[in-house]
Each structure stands twice: as C-alpha cells, then as structure tokens.
Amino acid sequence: MKRFLLIITAICIASLSIFVFTGCPTATTDTYYIKFKLDGVDKNFDKGYTNYESNPFGNERGPATILFATPDDETGAEEPDNYIRIYFYGLDTDTYPATLTDANLTLRIDGGPTASTWSDATLQVRRYGAVGGTIEGIFSGGLDDGPIITEGEFRVLRAPDNTYPPIPTD
Question: Which of 1, 96, 154, 165 could form a disulfide with 52 if both were Cys (CB 3.0 to 4.6 A apart)?
Fold first, then answer.
C-alpha cells in the first residue's frame, strides 16, 4: 500500500510540475488598433471601415499604403461618423515626414467635418509585414484645423493589396 501511495504521489507531483512550468494554454488572438490622443483625449479605433472588415487594416492601394480604422462598425457603404485614415507613400519600415509627397492623415470625429493635412508630424513605420501579418508604428502631429495628435500608435492587419470597401458616389 505504501508503494502504491508513493507512486500516486510521484505521478501527482510530476503532473503538477509540468502544469506549473509550461503554464496554461492561451488563446492566440491578434489585436489590431489605431490609438492616439486628440487634444489630450484618448481615442481607440479598433474596427474596419464598415461591416466589410472587423479589424483596422493597411495595404498597398496604388502608390500608397493605407492604415484605416473606425471605432463604430457601420453597415452598408456609408462613410462612418468616426474614422482615421493614414496614407504613407512607401512599402517598408521607415520614417515618413508629413508632407503631401510622404504621408497624409484624414480624421473625422462624431460626424463633424473631416480634418486632414497634418503639420509638424511624423509617421514611423516599425514593421511592415506580408499579407496576413501586421503593419505597426507610431505617429503624432497637428491637423490643419487645430487639433493636436499625440501618442499615436498603430498595429493593423496587413490586408491583401487593393482591398477597400466601395466608396459611396452619392
């Protein structure tokens, strides 16, 4: 009987040590977002443009790469009330100054007017993955109508090239 208890104890200790040292399995879900502070107020955009996409994404569309997100998942092809769209003219990791030839940003908050053409800004792309990977980096700067973006950060899905929802014509 002692031998039986000793064997059971050894098995329990071995099982427990495997569990403790290897940890519990965790779900591997990617989190995609474009977040920043707009005049000191936190903004977190973690959806795609409409119901076509569930994640903010970036891809090559013509000569530019787009990083795009909206916090509300609208249906149909309507332009959402809140969105941020960042263009940068490159396909690799680099720092892109905010000029008409290097980078541009469009922002719309709460259905208000669209603000674009930022100044004194920088976009730094730190990772530009293959399709299915991520595009990651940081950004900051002022917008032409006054708001200041600070602590901008993005991690978006690298979508297939030229994938973008239809733009309304009316």
Answer: 165
